[in-house]
Amino acid sequence: MKPIDRPTLCIGILTMNEERRIAQCIQSAKFADQIVVVDSGSTDRTRDIAQEMGAEIHRYDDWQGFAVQRTRLLQHVKADYIFFLDADEVIGDALADEIRAAVASGRDAIWEVLWNQVAYGRPLTLMKSTAGVQRLFKTASVEKFEGVVHEGAVMRNGTRPVLKFRERLLHYSRETVHGSLLKLAQYVQHGAAKRAQVGKTGGVLRGFASALAIFLKLYVFRRGFLCGAEGFLFCFFIALECFFRYAALKYDFKQPGVALSKR
């Protein structure tokens, strides 16, 4: 990167067989000064497409979890700020303006963004968004990432104020029923592993209670019912994830060291 007389921004993306979405994702990140893709051993055209789009590519096939991959990405960042973007996400123009303004401020803070979920071809705009995800940091302030799934940043020299973007981040989380089933298996495994590490116990009844609670929360209280059949499917798959997470915790994690799959 050439020296620039303003705070600079890197957008970092983790990938694994994302050829269907990676071009749209990178295109939405073009306003950044640097785009870094850390690939986990894709067997499709993900890396080729990313390179054609002008991204900087680094490959780490020895998968050790999402937190390790994000920490590895940090070492390739040459900009003052890092925004983490998933390959199934798209930054809209209004959010890009907010991100630019945050970087220009020079503040040492953490910025959260809410998702606008896109499920089965329909944006679930009428559904209230869940809690924000932390995505923008001052690069020098982040030491590493920790966590099995929904990994979090470990900050240097104490905590930072947490600010929120107004605009949402488009998240193409569930495009097909088949893809949702594959994601269900992955997130069940990671969620169960996370709970096994802290000594929690599972079971069918506990899973059913968790599934029922999250379905009512999303479908009723967060207004998923306003989003038609797509809203129902979205909420139902998340409830299934909660159920099987506790079932897997009892029946699949009897012994430590169960391997984690890639995202």
* Count of separate DSSP helical elements: 7
Q: Which H/E pattern describes the elements?
A: EHEHEHEEHEEEEEEEEHHH
- N-to-C terminal Cα separation, in Å? 30 Å
Low-confidence stretches: none
With strands numbered from the N-terminus, the spatial order across the biggest sheet is: 3-2-1-4-9-6-12
Q: What's the story with the biggest beta sheet?
A: 7 strands, mixed
* Secondary-structure content class: alpha/beta
Give helix % range: 25-40%
The radius of gyration over CA amounts to 19 Å
Describe the structure in your own words.
- The chain is an alpha/beta fold and 263 residues long.
- 38% of the residues lie in helices and 23% in strands.
- The protein is built from 7 helices and 13 strands.
- It has helices at 22-28, 46-52, 66-74, 93-105, 177-197, 204-221, 228-251, and strands spanning 9-15, 34-39, 56-59, 81-86, 89-90, 110-113, 115-119, 122-123, 133-138, 142-146, 152-155, 162-164, 169-174.
- The strands form 3 sheets. A 7-stranded mixed sheet has the order 3-2-1-4-9-6-12, with helices on both faces. A 4-stranded mixed sheet has the order 5-13-7-8. Strands 10-11 form a two-stranded antiparallel ribbon.
- Strand 1 (9-15), helix 1 (22-28) and strand 2 form a beta-alpha-beta unit.
- The protein is globular and about 60 Å long.
- The two termini are 30 Å apart.
- The model has no long low-confidence stretch (mean pLDDT 91).
